[in-house]
C-alpha cells in the first residue's frame, strides 16, 4: 500500500467504487466501524464518548462510529455542526441510523466525556475553520481529552500537511484506503498523532485506476530496481564514483560522501582535489583512492579517461564549485549535486537547468535541504506544499530532487514523487547530508535509475540512523549500512518488506 492519494484522488476513487460493486454506503459503514474499533482498542477504559460530526461524509463516518460505539456499550453523544436535515447522501443515511442523543455543537461541550472523536472535516475541507466549528475544536483541545481524528485532524489540509486556520491535534488518526500527503508532511504528521490505516474494502483496481504518482518511500517502491552484484563481475562493473574535494581545511564533507558512496556499493571511489587536501584525506581513508586535481577544470581530463563515472560535487567543495559542477555535468555518466552547488547557483536555477539540459540522457540528482532549496530558487521559486515544491523543482531543473528534512521528498522530472517517514530526529546532524549524497551515488554507480537510487538512498539513510540510534554522528552512517543492507536483502529473499 505504497500509493499516497491526494484528497481529490481519494474522492475520485470514491466516485469509481460503485462501478466495481462497492457502494459509498458500504465504504462509510466500514470506515465508521474501523474508527469505533480503533477507539475501543486504544481506549478500552473510555466509557463516555463525544463525537463531533460535520456536515459532509466525514460527519457521516462519525455517525457510524457513534452507533458502533453505543452498540458496544459506550455512552455516546453526537455534537452536530449541521442539523441532520441538512446532511446529504450517505451521511444523511448514516445520521438517520443513529438514534442516540444529538446536540447542536454549540451546546455540547467535552465535559463529562473520556474521549473525543473528531469527525468534523476530512478530505473535503475547503477553507480555514471559523466560527462555531473553530470554537468547538478549541474547547476540545483545551479539554485535554484524547482525540481520535477521523481521516485527518479537522482543520488540517490533507494534501499539504498544513493548517490555514485552527486545527484539532489528534492522539490517534484513523484514515482509510491509502495515506494522504498530509499524514506524512510536517506539521501534519505531528498533528495526526499515531496513524492507523484501515482497509475499508476499496478494491485495489479502483485505487490503481486513479493513477497516483505519489508514494510512500518503502522498499516496495524501488526493490525491483535495487542492484544485484554480478557473481562474475569485477569492481568496475559496480561503477566508479569521483568526489570533488575542496581545500585542505574543509575535507570532512567530501570524505563522508566518498565513504557513503563506497558503502552504498560503488566498486571504486576516488577523491579528487588539491594535493594538500588529499594529504589530509590520506590520513583517514584506505579503500578510497586519491587523485590530485589542482584545479576543478582538471576534472575534465580525469573524467574523460573513464567510461563510466558518477560524480559528486558540492560537499565541502569550496570556491571552485561552479567549475567542478561544469566538469561533472560534462563528463560524468550521472551526477549528485549537493551543498555548495546551491550557493554557487544561488538565484540562478535556470543556469543550472541549462547546464543539466545539455546532456539530457545523463541523470542528475540534487539534494538540497530547505535552506539550500530557498537559496537556489530565490524569489519566484516553487510554491505550495513540500511535495508540490519538490515536484515543481524537479520539473524546472530536469533533475531528480531530494528535498531533505524529517519528511524528505524525492521528486522525479517525470512527475513521480515519494515521501519518507523513517528518518529519526537524531539524523539531523552535521555531515549526514554528505553521506546521503554518497549513498545515492553508490547506487547510481551500480546502474540504478535516478528516482529509484535517490529514494532507496533516502530510505537506507534513515534506516542506518535508526540502526545507530541516539548519539549518532555522521561518521557512523557509512559503517551502519551493511547491517541495514543485510536485513533488507534477507527480506527481499523472503519476498517481504522490512516495513509494511
Ligand atoms: N474513500 C474514502 O476515503 C472514504 C471517505 N470517507 C469520508 O469522507 C470524507 C470526505 O467527505 P466530504 O467530501 O463530504 O468532505 P468533509 O466531510 O471533509 O467536508 C465537506 C463538507 O464541509 C464543508 N466545509 C468544508 N470546509 C469547511 C469549513 N472550513 N467550514 C465549514 N464548512 C466547511 C463543505 O462545504 C462540505 O459540506 C473523508 O474525509 C472521509 O472521512 C468515508 O465516508 C469512507 C470512504
Ligand atoms: N528533524 C529531522 N528528522 C529526521 N531527519 C532529519 C531531520 N532534519 C534533517 N534530517 C535529515 O538529516 C540530514 C541532514 O542533511 P544536511 O542538512 O544536508 O546536513 P549536512 O549538510 O551537514 O550534511 C538529511 O538527510 C535530512 O533529511
Ligand atoms: K476529522
Automatic annotation (TrEMBL):
GO biological process, one term: metabolite repair
Entry EC number(s): 4.2.1.136, 5.1.99.6
GO molecular function terms listed in the Swiss-Prot or TrEMBL record: ADP-dependent NAD(P)H-hydrate dehydratase activity; ATP binding; metal ion binding; NAD(P)HX epimerase activity
Entries under InterPro entries matching the protein: CARKD (IPR000631), Nnr (IPR030677), Ribokinase-like (IPR029056), YjeF_N_dom (IPR004443), YjeF_N_dom_sf (IPR036652)
Annotated binding of AMP, by residue: 404-408, 433
Pfam families referenced in this protein's UniProt entry, alphabetically: Carb_kinase (PF01256), YjeF_N (PF03853)
Record protein name field: Bifunctional NAD(P)H-hydrate repair enzyme
